[in-house]
Design a protein that fits this description.
By secondary structure, the protein is α/β, with parallel strands linked by helices. The chain has 13 helices and 15 strands. Strands 5-6-7-8-9-10-11 form a 7-stranded parallel β-sheet. Strands 3-2-1-15 form a 4-stranded antiparallel β-sheet, sandwiched between helices. A two-stranded antiparallel ribbon has the order 4-13. Bound molecules: 2-succinylbenzoate and magnesium ion.
Length: 382
């Protein structure tokens, strides 16, 4: 697999509705797409970093910098045995998992196409249909939240997750539970609480939640083990888990009973499979998290979600919940049973709408290998 070309693009995409979490409101996404050409075949990846460093430490701009100045120089012109080999070539770049994932995942798409396999099959997936939930942002009132939950249930989604923060938790979630006594319900705090809030968080135990996602600091596994010892609701870690070693540590100290697996956060498909396998060996279920992705990131999430230990519904939902028009075709659709059919054609299984991508692009940079040149690969930038 010779990496002939890498193209990096930044797109502006306007969300249909603002999305509010404990760390802020997102109206517009600044999305980086990575296009690779490998042995003449084009693969696509998406960088899932947020606009500001408030989910984790990466941003759209840090990813642009790390990809341009460190990742591309190590990969352009390289002849790899497989996409997963890129992970070892990038290992001495510390952190920046989302930047790495955008590039590595594009190589996985290309490898799957070169082998004539769907990405799901190449990854070792075992499902042809995945189960879906939705993630609902903070609302002004419990009534407004209950209305949104009702709409999503009508669409068929199998699990409802609601964002919480101090002052917007018990009342809102109790209102949803009173109205819908039997639904599968969970909450996500995005690090909005501290260990001293344990008695308060304890009150959520009565609401029969599937899980409480990332209540404490984004990088603090140990405090979650102290909280988990004080509450009955299962803690699910998101922000804290960046690789398989983190997952194993978190499980061994009792910091969580469920793990949210995000491709970007762990650095791409190679690392995601390792996290998946560690969790499976430890009997900890995983589910696929979302980062308000465009269709390309969403298609990668669908492929990953076919692995056997993805036993809980993910935050992988229909394109039309996010975008007036998605950049892939067909768009991602969810059945009335709250599932997504996994494409079987080679690679991601969705076509990229190039013209729309071009319209949404605000900056581009590309690099081409000169494969046969004396002195090896060189890079050109525009
Ligand atoms: O914590 O899961 C999260 C969105 C942006 C950043 C972090 C998170 C989220 C979501 C949205 O919950 C999931 C989605 O619908 O893509
Ligand atoms: Mg989360």
């Amino acid at each position: 697999m010779t990496i002939e070309t890498i193209v990096l693009r930044e797109l502006r995409m306007c969300l249909k509705a603002p999305f509010e979490t404990s760390f802020g409101v997102t109206h517009n996404r600044r999305i980086l797409l990575v296009e690779v050409i490998v042995d003449g075949v084009t693969g696509w990846g998406e960088v899932t970093a947020t606009e500001s460093p408030s989910y984790n430490s990466e941003t759209t701009d840090t990813a642009w910098h790390i990809i341009s100045d460190f990742i591309v120089p190590r990969l352009i012109g390289q002849d790899l045995d497989s996409a997963s080999q890129s992970a070892s070539l990038l290992a001495t770049i510390r952190g920046h998992q989302m930047a790495k994932a955008g590039v590595e995942n594009a190589l996985w798409d290309a490898e799957a196409q070169l082998k004539g396999l769907s990405l799901a099959k190449l990854l070792g997936g075992t499902r042809n249909e995945i189960v879906c939930g939705v993630s609902l942002g903070l609302r002004d009132t419990p009534e407004a939240l209950v209305r949104r939950v009702e709409e999503e249930l009508c669409s068929g989604y199998q699990r409802i997750k609601v964002k919480i923060k101090p002052g917007k938790d018990l009342d809102c979630i109790s209102a949803v539970r009173r109205r819908f006594p039997d639904i599968v319900l969970s909450v996500d705090a995005n690090s909005a609480y501290e260990l001293k809030d344990a008695d308060h968080l304890n009150k959520l135990d009565e609401l029969n939640l599937l899980m409480m996602e990332q209540p404490l600091q984004w990088d603090d596994i140990y405090s979650h083990s102290e909280l988990q010892a004080k509450i009955n609701t299962a803690i699910c870690l998101d922000e804290c888990i960046n690789n398989a070693a983190h997952a194993l540590a978190a499980i061994e100290v009792g910091a969580c009973r469920i793990i949210n697996l995000k491709l970007g956060r762990v650095g791409g498909h190679t690392s995601a499979r390792q996290v998946h396998d560690v969790c499976q060996e430890q009997s900890i279920p995983v589910w696929c998290g979302g980062m308000l992705e465009s269709g390309i990131g969403r298609a990668h999430n669908i492929a990953m979600s076919t692995l056997p230990n993805f036993t809980l519904p993910g935050d992988v939902s229909a394109s039309q919940r996010y975008w007036a028009e998605d950049i892939i075709e067909p768009e991602v659709k969810v059945t009335s049973r709250g599932t997504i059919w996994v494409p079987e054609s080679p690679g991601l299984g969705y076509a990229v709408k190039r013209e729309l991508v071009n319209q949404l692009t605000v900056r581009t940079r590309d690099w081409r290998a000169r494969i046969h040149a004396l002195g090896g690969p060189f890079q050109r930038s525009s």
